[in-house]
Structure formats: structure tokens, C-alpha cells
Design goal:
By secondary structure, the chain is of the alpha/beta class. It has helices spanning about 5-15, 20-25, 100-110, 140-150, 165-170, 185-195, 205-225, 235-245, 250-255, 260-275, 280-290; strands at about 30, 35-40, 60-65, 75-80, 90-95, 115, 130-135, 155-160, 175-180. The strands form three sheets. The chain has a five-stranded parallel sheet, with helices on both faces. A two-stranded parallel sheet has the order 1-3. The protein contains eleven helices and nine strands.
Length: about 290
């Protein structure tokens, strides 16, 4: 075979080689979130993301973005991301006492990809309800009580003026977060919404201090005189479990607390039944883990 024929055959074989790395990398999809798709082959790394959604990845290629998977996939699979709502967005319903306030709030939220605004007709499926008012009046309280009945939605209050007496009302209405309107720029609003969607609460520092003072006053003036506490145990129950933890038996606990042995047994049995505890050792462990004794 001549030299020319050898070069010709070598060139023909080269034309049938697989695409190089640059050609393979040119085929990809991007996205923040997780896709459900069909392809060929097997993933070489797990996918992570920030939401749930649907999409199709076909053929050989790589997906880049907040969740990355390279290589090929075989059959049908689901890659699940973190978050709630559509594509990881938080669903929000806005309530305002006038059109100007509502328009301004919607304008602040609409441009953010983390937020999905819910129309009024579908407000019951919102994860977060934002109530925007000048001050907490009777009409606002009625709205907050109505929203409280929807246990799947958490309520935040954006208020112009917050009176000290409104703190008790806020607690009774189940408000999870408060932001003053003068501080309600876009970033703070998004922080508020995302915190509530994650089960957190948000309060200005001065209101948090007032809330703690309020709880302390409630304990001193209302609960302590009745032998009650804010924990899952009464003062008497906590004392008896503390004595159990120190190794005292029923008769010794009765003498120290000035109760009958029968009362001690009934109290400890009531605690075990209410908290689904197996025995006294379990009750002691529960109380210590939760800081009750």
C-alpha cells in the first residue's frame, strides 16, 4: 500500500471519531431547581437544587446551574431540590387597607424570582400572608383572626405605627413576623417572607424586648400564683420529677413535698401518660433534655 493510500484511510477513520469535549459541552440545559427528565445512560453525580419543577433533559450532555449533573442518564428519574412553592418560590398573598398600599407592596415583590404572588381568589393556598396597614385597629384584628384559621398560612404584619398595646393582640392573632413600613425596603421584605416560609419569626429588636418582658410578667402575675408554668410541666410535676432524678422513691418524695404517696404516684402517672413516657427514667430524661428541671 502506498503512502498516499495510507494517509487517505487514516483521514477517513478520523472523520468518524466521537465529538471532542468542546462539542459535547455545547449541549446543556441550565436552571436553578430540579428537573424530572428522560435521557440515556446513568448520572455520574447527584443533583441538588433549590426547588421543584419539571423539565426534560434528552440525549448526552451536561446540566449546569444551582444543581449540576454531568454525563448521561438512563430511563426516567427525578432530581429534587429544596424549597417550596413553584420552582422553589414562596407563595404570597397581600392584604392592604387601601389600593395604594397594596400596589406598592406588590410592586416590591413582583420583580423578585423567589416570590410567587397569589391572586385574591386563590389566597387560601398561600404559604405567607402579608397584611399591610397604617396601624392595628379593629378591622385589622378581624382580618388577622380570619387568616389565623388557615393553619397552612403564616401571617406577617407590615405596619406604619405599632402601639405597645398591640403586642398582646399580635400574639393572640398568631402573627409570626412584624416589620415597620418605614423599614420595609425590598430586601427586608424578602427576608421576612423567606423566614416565615421556613417557620421562623421576625420582630424588630425593641418589640422582641417588649415581648420577653410581657412573657415574664405573665409568668409572675398569672401563672406562678396558680402553680403553672409556660412549659409542659406544672411546678408540682417538675418538682417531683426533679426528686426522682435525685434518686428519691415515692415515700421520700411524699414526705418532701407534703403530699400523699398516692398523689405522688398519680402525678407521675399523669405526666407519663400526657407526654407518652414509658417510665420514671424516661420522664427524667425528657425533662432534662427539654430544660424543664
Amino acid at each position: 500500500m502506498t503512502t498516499a493510500e495510507t494517509k487517505s484511510r487514516t483521514t477517513e477513520r478520523g472523520q468518524h471519531r466521537r465529538p471532542d469535549a468542546a462539542q459535547r459541552a455545547a449541549r446543556y440545559t441550565t436552571g436553578a431547581g430540579a428537573d424530572t427528565g428522560t435521557g440515556t445512560g446513568a448520572p455520574t453525580a447527584p443533583a441538588t437544587g433549590t426547588g421543584t419543577g419539571t423539565g426534560t433533559v434528552t440525549g448526552m450532555g451536561a446540566r449546569t446551574g444551582m444543581g449540576a449533573r454531568t454525563g448521561t442518564a438512563t430511563g426516567t428519574g427525578t432530581a429534587a431540590g429544596l424549597g417550596t412553592g413553584t420552582g422553589g418560590r414562596v407563595t404570597v398573598a397581600v392584604y392592604a387597607e387601601d389600593l395604594i398600599l397594596q400596589t406598592g407592596m406588590i410592586h416590591q415583590l413582583r420583580t423578585r424570582p423567589e416570590i410567587e404572588l397569589i391572586p385574591e381568589a386563590e389566597a387560601d393556598r398561600a404559604q405567607v400572608s402579608l397584611v399591610v396597614v397604617d396601624m392595628v385597629d379593629d378591622q385589622t384584628v378581624q382580618l388577622l383572626h380570619r387568616l389565623q384559621r388557615n393553619t397552612s398560612t403564616r401571617t406577617g404584619l407590615v405596619v406604619g405605627f405599632f402601639e405597645s398595646g398591640a403586642l398582646q393582640t399580635m400574639i393572640e392573632c398568631g402573627v409570626a413576623a412584624v416589620l415597620r413600613r418605614g423599614e420595609a425596603d425590598q430586601d427586608r421584605l424578602i427576608h421576612l417572607v423567606k423566614a416565615m416560609a421556613n417557620g421562623e419569626g421576625v420582630l424588630p429588636g425593641d418589640l422582641l424586648g417588649k415581648l420577653l418582658d410581657h412573657v415574664s410578667s405573665l409568668q409572675r402575675t398569672v401563672l406562678d400564683p396558680r402553680g403553672l408554668t409556660l412549659s409542659t410541666l406544672t411546678a408540682r410535676e417538675a418538682e417531683m420529677i426533679r426528686l426522682v432524678s435525685e434518686g428519691y422513691d415515692t415515700a421520700e418524695i411524699a414526705r418532701k413535698t407534703s403530699y400523699s404517696e398516692r398523689t405522688v404516684k398519680n402525678v407521675l402517672h399523669e405526666v407519663a401518660t400526657r407526654l407518652d413516657l414509658r417510665n420514671r427514667a424516661h420522664a427524667v430524661g425528657y425533662a432534662m433534655r427539654h430544660g424543664l428541671i
